[in-house]
Amino acid sequence: MKYISTRGQAPAVTASQAILNGIAPDGGLYVPEHWPNLALDWSTLRTQTYSDLATLIFDAFFDDFSVSEIDHIINKAYGEQWTTEDIVSLHNEDDLTYIELFHGPTLAFKDIALQALPHLMTAAAKKQAINDKIVILTATSGDTGTAAMSGFGHVDQTEIVVFYPEEGVSDIQKQQMQSEAAENAHVIAITGNFDDAQKAVKTLLSDKALAHDLDAKNMRFSSANSINIGRLVPQIVYYIYAYAQLVKSERIKPGEEINIVVPTGNFGNVLAAYYASQIGLPVKQFVVASNENNVLTDFFTTGKYNSKRDFKVTNAPAMDILVSSNLERLLYFASGQNSTEIREYMTSLAEKGEYVLKTDTRDKLNKFTAGFASQEQVLQTIKHSRDTTDYTIDPHTAVGRYVYEKIAVSGPTLIAATASPYKFSQTVLQALNISPKSGHDALEQLAEATSTAIPNQISELFDKPVLHKQLIDAKQILTTLRHEIL
Predict the structure, then answer these.
(1) How far apart are CA 92 and CA 48, in angstroms?
(2) Which of 210, 223, 380, 404 is 20 to 30 Å from the Cα of 397, by its Cα?
(3) Which is more confidently placed, 134 or 192?
(4) CATH assignment of 89-106+230-455, given 3.40.190.10, 2.40.10.270, 3.40.50.1100, 3.40.50.300?
(5) CA-CA distance, 289 to 232, in Å (whole number)?
(6) What DSSP element (H or E) covers 187?
(7) Residue 205 has what pLDDT?
(8) Rounded distance, CA 457 to CA 448, Å?
(9) Cα dist from 196 to 233, 282, 293, 322, 459, whole Å
(10) What global pTM score does this model have?
């Protein structure tokens, strides 16, 4: 299988090359040239482990890796660092099933891909006979940075550089990033927002002069953001696994269509669900749930993408995004793989902050619907869930749950539960009408209020020293990066 750029002006590459590059030379995102031919036999899949299904999907999409390489990657990615043997777990409420994606090292769904990506990348480098040090460049709204450092920390021949917005991340997220002890980790706060960081990272990844300077030092860039196809493909697995488990428990019949609700900002998690549908997952409707930065809600409602609006710092901070990078991949397929059309959209977005879909392309998005939740609605949903079902959800999952109720989704539905409530303990406590304390005290408050245990992953987090204190303006990212790496 070859991977090609959404913008059509870069050479086709293998999976390992796409993973190493991160982003295509023309600024586009790598997509599979065609969908792998998989026959999803649910009578068989229902009996298989998460690692079995991960192997199936990785083999299909990363077909230039050997069987032994894939087995090694899966074993490393989905081992003892998980608090549940099944990697993900399911929580059922009537027709709604939560996929709990937060049982990894940093308590967020990003772990599922970012425990695999370092091993994909090092295997890819060996396969391509590359001895350069790989500099992993990452913009984060909180979770990607912590998960990326958990994955890449202490990995030979890598450096990981994380840029995150100073305001808007939770206490847990900030402490996780600032206390990262890996010698190859560089953590830098910016005074701008996530979009500022993401734009700078995408520009740096395509900067030929910077690439030349890195090459002179035997270094090269890649990315741990979901713009990297190696980040995206592992996320397909949990949708296939969850469906198979619904079949196993006889909550659905094999082949029965389901709805998938995804709280999303950069569109990677919902795009993975779409990719799953293209290889055989029966999906009736994709529900795109946003917070008050509701650019995606407006887009799917009107066909116009307009990022020219006030950026809001909300209580669901991982979704505080106005430029959803992975949407480009969806539009590429919706347009009939028309790279000229995609270039027009992305040029208009860069120059004018907006673009309008062509009618034929918009018509191909008829399975997508969208809605958003205000900050107050997030709090109300957390409390309602706790009061009525004794189930505690984080603010991002609450966004998805609110939109699910608002648009009255009917039939069997999966909702991506993207983070542990402990990762956003202060917001959850506020929702439960408890005046939140800070740091570890807030974790103890939440444990007492919900009769649950503080996750081992963060039980001693606030005992760790703060090691990364650098704060810069977003305009200083290039200069700072050169200072840190070159």
Answers:
(1) 20
(2) 223
(3) 134
(4) 3.40.50.1100
(5) 19
(6) strand 185-190
(7) 84
(8) 18
(9) 26, 37, 15, 10, 32
(10) 0.95
